[in-house]
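Q: How would the structure tokens look for this protein?
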Amino acid sequence: MQEQFPIRKIIHVDMDAFYASVEQLDAPELKGKPLAVGGGQKRGVVAAASYEARKYGVKSAMSGRMAAKLCPELIFVKPRFERYREISKKIRSIFFEYTDLVEPLSLDEAFLDVTVNKKQMPSATILAREIRARIKEETGLNASAGISVNKFLAKVASDINKPNGQKTIPPEEVLEFLETLDIRKFFGIGKVTAEKMYQLGIFTGKELKERSLEFLTDHFGKSGQHYYHVVRGIHQSEVKPERIPKSVGAERTFSENLSSEVYMLDKLDHIAGELSDRLKKHRVAGKTITLKIKYSDFRVQTRSKTLPYFVADKDLILETARELLYQEELQDSVRLLGLSLSNLNTGEKKQQEEEPPEMKVQLKLEF
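A: Here is the predicted structure in token form.
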């Protein structure tokens, strides 16, 4: 017999091509043109691409050189994070007019729990439409939204009618929707996992649902349990207004490759300072310091050390970073250095939850 679990009304708001859209907003002459926010085609990496650039295959995390090859008319603009943060703050202030249960994922997206909301509006679909209209009116930017019974489904739904659209998956349509969904569309299933599922004959949610819990855990470890539940519409994670970071980091790409450790130490001094500032902002400290090295041929190497005590101070971070840098000989010249701190003193405890029950839909709940 199926049991019932609480159904929430969750909205996932995702700004459309946020960084690029801000640049086009502030410089109208860039509207309608292929645009990449990043360090340029010589050395940089694309942080964001406008929809005009995406038509050519340009996407985030791509090298500027490759992006320029795909789109010769591509315009590169340097990122202005202070401006993005300024607009993000305005957008979040709009969210808080509707609910206090807001969980930001980044500057351009957030989850909102509107099961009980400040407008006392029963329809999450209407609320999402109103929030998007407010964002457009007050910032000039477009946002997309997904609305459903949990965070997982809302996140998937927000991508369906992008850009400048929204999608509601009401309780009575959840199971059918998940069965027809391509597994590549499942939030949390990346390219490598998708390829592994393809090899196992799993292409859609229906085929994923046909696999037993034992089969999925055998092939995907702990993640298998997650896949088993989400394809049944079960995702109990609540919207958490204050997300606890698992790690904090900072990195820098250089305009010219570095081959001398002396120059690298100078760069690490600045990176350690930036990392320390971020740690203090989050009011956390950590024990595990990781040095990230990206070589000129794009190979990435990481070196870590766990200390017996928590640190957040720049000098202590830099001291360990220096030790990690000289730990072994560098393999080539270096184009990027990064530092991160994990094993944080957040006091976060992993809760052992009982296996969630099968989903029983509530057909009369207004969405």
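The chain is about 35% helix and 20% strand.

The domain at 18-81 is CATH 3.40.1170.60 (MutS, DNA mismatch repair protein, domain I).

Upvote if useful.
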